[in-house]
Design a protein that fits this description.
Helix content of chain A: over 70%
Largest interface: A-B, 40 and 40 residues
Strand content of chain A: under 5%
Shape of chain A: globular
Largest sheet of chain A: none
Number of helices of chain A: 10
Oligomer: homodimer
Chain lengths: 205, 205
DNA sequence: TCTACAAACGGACAATTGTCCGCTTTTCAT
DNA sequence: ATGAAAAGCGGACAATTGTCCGTTTGTAGA
């Protein structure tokens, strides 16, 4: 007798909420819009809103995910067509895409970890767009690891090399945490171009 | 007729608040204690609490500042006695102190940017303890900059070299954002020692 | 010592977040 | 079709943050 597993109309509400939030965030600003207001605009109750997105950060993350699709496509295209370049140069190229994106969308990215109670500070690092870039970057760094071979059998040594590359990629991306980039611009007075060039000096050679 | 400029009893209340917060945070946990509760325990009103510390993050920052004093002393001592070592090795040493500290006190450090409305995401980067470490680290990287001379006249070239060193130091420290370190441990399963060694590979050679 | 003034206080209040629970709607076996 | 069970809804409610303003209190000049 355990039959109804999922209701087909529930997804529609989540779509409405996302749409409403996107519009309101664009019209005003992320922090000027309350969750109550979003629910009202979407024409749903508070409960429905919070069931779809547990807090404002999740909403921002969902929108950022949509917004990132374009950049991710460009990045994939770049990687497909830059096979001939040395890995360090490719890393520099990736950096440009990432920094451009963060610089552009930081208003949306910052609130992702503006969580109140949940203590979910690493939400940003677990978002699909972060994982995607992390993975691509790890692949580049792996090429630079001594002893690493693509598609090699899964030995302990290969796994160790991948793990080292993955840590490097994470450290790089972690320093590109939106808050850090904002500080470089506002607090240190660097331009986007200067930021890219400093990153390349450190990470792409 | 403009006479009373500052009241000597006001500082006492701030001290009481800090003390109460410290005790409550230790007893329960940072997020389990409400601002109201802190005010009550300290025996002051909400208004007084918020006049001293505009939000929970500031309170955490103030406590972290106190807690950091020890580590900072150790670090200064280390730098005083390690003059003979090459700069890269000294950077590695500094990294150990920093990572140890963050790993130890992240519960206090995380909420510093858990701000609700203020949109003050770079509070962490402006805290005195951050500035201190940043400054020391910049000095080490400056030594590695081609063309940099200590106590040289203030030419454009010298300033440029210092600025490059300062950006590198910030990038390093920015990736040591508590949230990022927590993720390396929880999300990636690295130990403190592994984290230190990965950082040294990237930043201290 | 007295007095006037502004700094500082404190608690009531507004705003916002996030939860809870009774009600409605979809689903599916009969 | 139909009815029962669970998925989903929504808005009232609790909790928490942060503000505001009438009142208190220390300070300094007289």
């Amino acid at each position: 007798m355990i039959k109804p597993r999922k209701r087909s109309d529930a997804a529609e509400n989540c779509r409405l909420i996302l749409q409403a939030a996107k519009r309101l965030f664009a019209e005003k600003s992320v922090q000027a819009v309350s969750m109550h207001q979003i629910a009202q605009t979407a024409g749903v109750g508070q409960g429905t809103l919070y069931r779809c997105y547990a807090h404002k950060g999740e909403l921002c993350a969902a929108i950022a995910e949509q917004v990132a699709v374009d950049t991710i496509k460009q990045l994939e295209n770049y990687l497909d067509t830059s096979g001939g370049l040395p890995a360090t140069e490719r890393i520099g190229g990736i950096l440009q895409y990432i920094i451009q994106f963060i610089d552009d969308k930081f208003q949306l990215l910052l609130p992702i970890h503006t969580v109140h109670d949940c203590e979910d500070e690493s939400a940003y690092f677990r978002s699909p767009m972060y994982r995607f870039v992390w993975d691509k970057l790890t692949a580049q760094y792996a090429e630079l690891e001594p002893g690493y071979v693509q598609n090699a059998p899964d030995t302990a040594e290969q796994r160790e090399a991948w793990s080292r590359a993955s840590a490097k990629a994470h450290i790089l991306l972690s320093s590109l945490h939106p808050a850090g980039v904002v500080f470089m611009r506002e607090g240190m007075g660097l331009t986007k171009e200067q930021i890219v060039s400093r990153y390349c000096e450190l990470f792409a050679r």
